[in-house]
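User: Okay, second chain of the day. Same drill as before: sequence in, structure tokens out.
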Amino acid sequence: MRRGNLFWGVLLILFGGLLFLQTMGFLQNINVWGLLWPVFLILLGIWILASRHLRRSAPGEHITVPLQDAARAKVRLNHGAGRLKIGAAAESGYLLEGDCNGGVNVQTQRRGDLLDVELSVPTQSVPFLGDAAYSLDWNLNFNSQIPLNMELNTGAQESQVDLSSLKVTEIHLQTGASATELILPANAGFTRLSVETGAASVNVRIPENVAASIRSQSGLASVIVNEARFPRSGSINQSPDYETSANKVEISIQVGVGSVEVR
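Assistant: Same drill. Structure tokens below.
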């Protein structure tokens, strides 16, 4: 039996059992729906830790993507189960370089002054909550001088995404059952960030010199915003100096049953 199927099977049996006991009158004084989310997070954390130890060590691959004299770039990262780390340390003449354990497919296309790059998981390694034979550990560094449009599509993983030294103008983060630490650019001028999560934990850090306007929608989720920095005004949280700030971010958050913190 696949480990991913086992995880979801145990989860459904547990949740169904709790709801059945409540229906039969055994849990009348307990808020079962209030228990489901923390129980899910605990099981998910245990599963991610266990899956990491069960996976075999993956072969490594060093990759480089030449800049090709492009003035800007669009990057799509389609990552699965494992760890993703992003920073700014690519050498001059390269858009990105890094080390990828577990394999990676790289596709590039030059359109005018734009370099379009997509990094994806090899077909034989596509994971779903631990189904892959290898953990996908990618450590990627980007050129800090090139304006970037970045799309991050991630699965059951840990992500440390440090964009503080990069010129990222647009970021779209779509993630599943994961834990993501995201540091936004400090000197990119204007940056637009959209976050779409399922059962995920996302921690967004905004550098001190950057103003922000934050709009959020949540279902069975927790969205926490530092209101000392970003006071609530109507349906948004916004820095008092947002309109006049030289560096600012516009953030849109859509959360299913996860949690997002902005500070």
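The radius of gyration is 20 Å.

User: Thanks, on to the next one.
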